Amino acid sequence: GLGSVYYRQGRYEEAITAYQKAIQLDPQSTAAAFAHNNLAGIYIQQRRFSLARRALAECIRLHPENTFAPLIQLGVLARHQGWPESEQHFRRALAQWERAWQDQYQSPAGLLANKAIALLCLGRKEEALQTLKEALARRRPGDTIELDDYELLRTAPEPPAGIEEMIALLKGSM
Fold first, then answer.
1. Does the pTM exceed 0.70?
2. What CATH number should be reported for the domain holding residue 18?
3. Most CB within 10 Å of its CB: which of 40, 88, 130, 143?
4. What confidence tens digit (pLDDT) does each residue in 139-154 have?
């Protein structure tokens, strides 16, 4: 949608407005859940962490059958803030991996890149690197793999081992 276009262009305030309008149109819909998830991504990037946490909670409430992506973002947010529940979010996300892969709410490349984040933050560095390489190999025109979550993890109180290598791999593929 329009919010995603603005987001990719770095026009975050316009993206926020577009996502908020999408939510207002049908606040209980799956589309509203995705808009909340995307809003959270912007809020995290803007360091508006309490807003991000609320948006992710609303996303999960509205779309409980597929919480893989918002759980990854909650895990990244928790890791960045030093909150103890970070690992729990990543474990829950990986438990939903098969369902997320079947439902394909995100591109295969995006799903794999998110899985790589969870693996890395759970100390499974080699598996994370292989998963990220697979994500990059599966990337199609128009697919995006967001560097933002990786960059945020780099600035966490305890960055996961291997984050620099993964960021270098991503930057080398752009």
1. yes
2. 1.25.40.10
3. 40
4. 998 787 878 889 889 9
